[in-house]
């Protein structure tokens, strides 16, 4: 193994995205250079951190690489994991900080069969009292039907139990908080969260949200304000564009207002809104007499943190027995105050490949209180820059370009591009992205 370069990283949670400092070190009698990367942001007692080692090459079955520290609850063995790079034999382990560890900097030692091959340090920060959090921004009310992020962090000596629930007259039912060991907050084993939805029947007013422990005892209370959108609010009618259309193996950046397909064809319906109504996130639907069934549009979380307008999409299937002709596709939003329609053209018989359709502008009707209506045309181009961002709101979330969006029939207007909606979210970056969208919507009201 002489001449190999070894990299050891000790990281914790979101620090994978920053706060890591390179520290040159010598080990193994100076026969090789060891680069040590240390997360210097600190971890609380009871928290988890990740230790990775690169450069040790392929180990024999009986060889053991161990990370140990006076700050750890116990030594941990590093095991090989796949990075997707041929010939890469990276090692990984998660270590727990001892609940009894005092604040300070502690040494970390990496050994191979008992022989020290690298040294580093880890910072332990003071414990923090349990905290109950609600995502509502002060001064900005929740909308009926909107999801509300709640979390309980009790990473503190002596805290136990895993059955926590939140209750409120603003919710339709009690909601259990859970810990996601594989989510972006994996490094805090005592962080429990949930996304209760404000009831669509909730009246304007101030409500109390109570946190209940395993025994049913009330542990904490928070107050939230609920108010439906009113004339003058940015999300009262929003700034909606669409519906647009693009192929299953195409990209949203190629979406058009007018689309050519055949009976039995499948394609994606896309909707954009600068200021969507938070209470419609799970109910936005595209309808058409040409569809086999109404299409529930889902939020594209891959666009969460790039500053772009929120957008929603899902695959639509054309009825296989449909006669040729032009058919409307309609999306109604903002509780009926906005209605927009675009056209699809059905040609030929049966499912099969076709050439692309011409572009057009969507037209629609927007009404307020059911009495005043205006007709207009969309003017903003659907072309959008690519981005590589992530997303977990308080909701957890991953890129929405997965299998659940893929329908059985082939795309008939496929331009031959990958079916990627610019961006792929993951981990902490996703959570930060969703938070940015929530902040952006509220600040714009």
Write the SSE topology.
Elements: E1 6-11, E2 20-27, E3 32-39, E4 48-54, E5 65-68, E6 76-80, E7 91-96, E8 104-112, E9 115-124, E10 131-134, E11 150-153, E12 164-167, E13 175-177, E14 191-194, E15 205-212, E16 218-226, H1 234-237, E17 240-246, E18 258-261, E19 266-273, E20 285-287, E21 295-296, E22 298-299, E23 311-317, E24 325-333, E25 338-346, E26 363-368, E27 372-377, H2 427-444
Parallel strand pairs: 1-3, 18-25
Antiparallel strand pairs: 1-4, 2-3, 4-7, 5-6, 5-8, 6-7, 8-9, 10-11, 11-14, 12-13, 12-15, 15-16, 17-19, 19-23, 20-21, 20-24, 22-23, 24-25, 25-26, 26-27
Overview of this protein structure:
This protein is mainly β. 5% of the residues lie in helices and 36% in strands. A hairpin with a 7-residue loop joins strand 5 and strand 6. The N terminus and C terminus are likely disordered.
* Number of helices in the DSSP assignment: 2
Rg to the nearest angstrom?
27 Å
- Strand percentage: 35-45%
Structural class, by secondary structure, is mainly beta
The biggest sheet amounts to: 9 strands, mixed
The total count of strands amounts to: 27
Shape: flat
- Look at the structure and give the mean pLDDT: 75
For the largest beta sheet, what order do the strands appear in spatially? 2-3-1-4-7-6-5-8-9
Q: Segments where pLDDT lies below 50 for 5+ residues? A: 1-9, 11-36, 352-356, 358-445
Distance between the termini: 61 Å
Characterize this entry briefly:
The chain is mainly beta and about 450 residues long. The protein contains two helices and 27 strands.
Which labels suit this protein?
mainly beta; disordered C terminus; 5% helix; 445 residues; seven-stranded mixed β-sheet
